[in-house]
Design a protein that fits this description.
The protein is mostly helical. It is built from ten helices and no strands. α2 packs across α3.
């Protein structure tokens, strides 16, 4: 059914194909808006304005399309976050930069963000496995801070996985509530939540205040426009 094996084999893994990329983005956006269970290929076609045959040339099923789209976008987002963190120079600055980049993505692309943060649990399969893999990858990056503490003061292993999962849960809850504009109000407490296990209460308080200052500047820039 819907098999076009030669054509799909040619396009497999070719995420630089513009039609394939449009279909994947449309799948995530539709899933974020309607919920994965409610999405049919028809809604995906309506979003990117293409033809049914194009979908089946690239994907064998809705499930395959979502799983590949999820992996592609979550890898892209993870790379952006890690790049922002590394460019900042040290762990705390990097954590700030990465969290701000993540909030900006969720604010600007709420439907796609909902698909990445919420609908993978519904879709299951490859998307859910990729979500768990990504949380572990980000958790390992966060846990690099353990090496900066004295052995007796280090948080337990896998603290980073717990923290990364907490960040994802917070954003998912806010996006599920349908108020992406309210995401930013939680940034200070989230920065404090991320910092405290590694650097203690005083450092966590500094990050909270730095986040409040960032949000005040952000609001001021928005008002100036």
């Amino acid at each position: 059914m819907h098999e076009l094996p030669a054509r799909r084999a040619e396009s497999a893994g070719r995420d630089d194909d513009p039609t394939r990329a449009e279909i994947m983005e449309a799948m995530l956006a539709a899933s974020g808006e309607l919920g994965y269970r409610e999405v049919a290929v028809r809604q995906v076609l309506e979003r990117y304005g293409g033809h049914r045959v194009q979908f089946w040339q690239h994907f064998a099923s809705k499930e395959e399309c979502f799983a590949i789209a999820y992996a592609t976008w979550v890898d892209r987002l993870t790379t952006e976050l890690v790049t922002a963190a590394l460019a900042a120079g040290d762990w705390r600055r990097g954590m700030r930069a990465a969290l701000i980049a993540l909030f900006e993505f969720a604010d600007e692309r709420p439907e796609v963000a909902r698909a990445l943060l919420i609908e993978a649990d519904v879709a299951g399969g490859g998307a859910l496995a990729k979500r768990e893999e990504t949380i572990e990858r980000l958790g390992e990056a966060l846990d690099s801070a353990r090496e900066q503490a004295e052995p007796e003061e280090r948080p337990p292993p896998l603290t980073g996985v717990f923290v990364a999962g907490g960040i994802a849960a917070y954003l998912g809850e806010r996006l599920a509530a349908g108020s992406p504009a309210d995401l930013w109000s939680g940034l200070p407490e989230l920065m404090r939540f991320v910092t405290e296990p590694y650097f203690g209460e005083a450092a966590a308080r500094e990050e909270l205040e730095a986040a409040r200052a960032f949000l005040a500047d952000r609001r001021g820039e928005g008002a100036a426009r």
